[in-house]
Write the structure tokens for this entry.
Amino acid sequence: MFKFHFICKSVRNKLLFIAGIGAALLLTAVIWALNAGWSHAEHVDHIIDQDLRTKSEMHELATLYATEIHAWKNILIRGSQDDVRNKYWSNVESIHHKVQEEAGRIRDELMNVHEDPEAAAIMKEFINQHQAMFDTYKKGLQVYVESDFDVARADKLVEGVDKKPNELLQQMIHIMDTDATRVLQEARNDFVFDQKMTVVYIALAMLISFTLFLFMIQKTVILPTRRLMKDLALMASGDFTHKIVVESGDEIGQLSASGAKLQEDMGSIVKLINESVFRVSASAEEMAHITEQSNQAMMSQRNETDQVATAMNEMTATVHEVAQNAQLAAGSAHQANNEVNTGQAVVNDAIRAIASLIQKAERAA
């Protein structure tokens, strides 16, 4: 569980995990290919070893068979003496038993190991013909002794008796050579097939690894990133109703968590702004109402101002007329002032004259 959590909490760990799975698949395919190659090589070596051993045994059997025939000929050539004849005949019997024993063992091996009943049947026929040849040799030996060691008579009795076993033996050797060639060709074909299958398995492992890599990248990186981009685009357009979902604990999940926190904070701010806008809108409506009332008051005041202006114009005309009259009055006043000054001077002169008269009167008294 801890290891899985360790893998899931980082995109890098996920990519390394995916790459590790791909490498494991490739390594498995390579190991399988090597194991298949080794198993096939061991199988081929085993078959070749069996064929070579059987072929070697066949050649040894052929050598024993030729030795047996040669030992029989020695009886005909040197068997006039009892001890020598008995010696060579004992040798023939010994070799005969060895050939029979070896042929029987090869027959069993062909039947049980090589699973070649046709070759086993040929070897069985060889055993029977070889036994018949030995029985003929026994009769020939008896004729040879009874005819006072007449070689021609004994040889005529056994003439051609070794031909059939020899043909069967040569046929077996040919079959073994053919089987060896066939086994080598089959081994070569199997090796080529194994090589092709190795390439196929490695290619299949690479394909599976690549497909798994794409699937995991799509699932763990691309799709979460696209969903996050879509959520951020909706948030950028002003839609804060679509909640950002945090799907993992890696860097993308952390980025989604940050986006969700930003969405929550921005949603709160937008809510406050909406409330402020609502209040401002209400204030604006109230201000518009007040402004309308002010406009009406200003229109009324403007009408009154027009009336005042008319009255002022009339007053100005009156003032102008009054000013003209005042100017005329001022001129008259100035003239009157001059006349007053002249009268004052006359009065002053009169006063001075009176004073002088008084003084003169007092002096006169």
Summary: The helical segments are 2-8, 11-78, 82-112, 117-146, 151-157, 163-236, 251-364.
